[in-house]
Amino acid sequence: MHWNTRDIIIGFGAGITVAIVIERLRQRGSSRSTSTRQPTSVVPSSVSKHLPPPGIGIESTIGHTPLIIVKSLSQATGCTIYAKCEFLNGAGNSPKDRVAQSIINDAESTGRLTPYSGDTIYEGTVGSTGISLATLARARGYQAHICMPSDQAHEKSDLLAKLGAVVERVTPAPIVDQSHFVNRARNLARAHTEDANTRGRGLFADQFETEANWQAHYQGTGPEIFEQVNGKLDAFVAGAGTGGTLSGVSMFLKSRLPMIRCVLADPQGSGLYNKVKHGVMFHSLEREGTRRRDQVDTIVEGIGLTRSTRNFEVGRDLVDDAIKVTDAQAKHMARWLVENDGIFIGSSSAVNCVAALETALQLGPGHSVATILCDSGMRHLSKFWSQVGGIGGEAKTTLEDILQA
């Protein structure tokens, strides 16, 4: 057969066309096969770039907690109301994780605690600090001995016992009484250290007075909030149990935002509201240090004091205002947040949110307010939430319920 030039060109072109078609069919089949396989080792870059590296121990879960916008309160006020989710600290699930870690770090650096030596940490607490200390004590090689008032929710003392701490529930008493839970812990720590027959030493954590408390929030919580709001915030609102959170955060934020408004949220029965508003804790006939009874009469746990502390005083001059919150207001706020946002919080967090709401209404639309969500409602089921009651299927609580209670 004779092939001329024209036939050769046509045949060559046809061969190339067929080769191209076959290759495209092969690639299409390969793509389909690949798309049906599930990836086993590739992590999307949007996930991997936000994940921290592995931490060492439970201590590594403390700090860097989320800051959220509380949608319902923000919509109701026209302000942006932020809540720092301190209940997501990973050791004791409260802002006291920061304090407990700071206390232990400071004691170790100064030689007052030595891991696995038999040293025991003693503290007088209404619950949250004790839980954080008990958790970190186990993680760092210590024992914990916790003294707490007997009127606190049993969830806290039960959890402390499960964490291996020795728990003493003592009868509530004023601070001038040596049977007060704080004095009891201090005396036990001293007796432990002085007893030559007892292994190790006793460390009184002293959360109300130690500088390690407010410094934990000045170095951690405050800078985190500042960064998370991109340096734009009009007010910070928090209650005071020891005063460390309010003082530490206020001191940092005021150093960066001199015009920010720092507000104390105070439950009924506490004297701190009067301390901020009028400069005195109580009437002159009931001056500090002379009280023979405990005036705090509230279902709110964790905040409120009948005396001033070093941690409160270090930042008191930076506190611009105080808002008194009733038990009824706290209960209504707790219901509101579940009904509208699915946020289940404890009593002190509810007080903070009431005060944040009132601060936002005072400032007016367009401003921003940050507060603290201290712990979950899970630790307040038997006391606070038993009075709040069940939540129905519909949102029924109103702002008027909260503000007028």
TrEMBL record:
CDD domains: CBS_like. Residues 28-50 are annotated as: Disordered. The keyword Cell membrane does not apply. Its main location: mitochondrion. One of its GO terms (cellular component) is mitochondrial outer membrane. PROSITE patterns: CYS_SYNTHASE (PS00901). It is a single-pass membrane protein. Pfam families: PALP. One of its GO terms (biological process) is cysteine biosynthetic process from serine. Residues 28-48 have a biased composition (Low complexity). Its cofactor is pyridoxal 5'-phosphate. It catalyses: O-acetyl-L-serine + hydrogen sulfide = L-cysteine + acetate. Belongs to the cysteine synthase/cystathionine beta-synthase family. This is Cysteine synthase 2. The lineage of its organism: Eukaryota, Fungi, Dikarya, Ascomycota, Pezizomycotina.
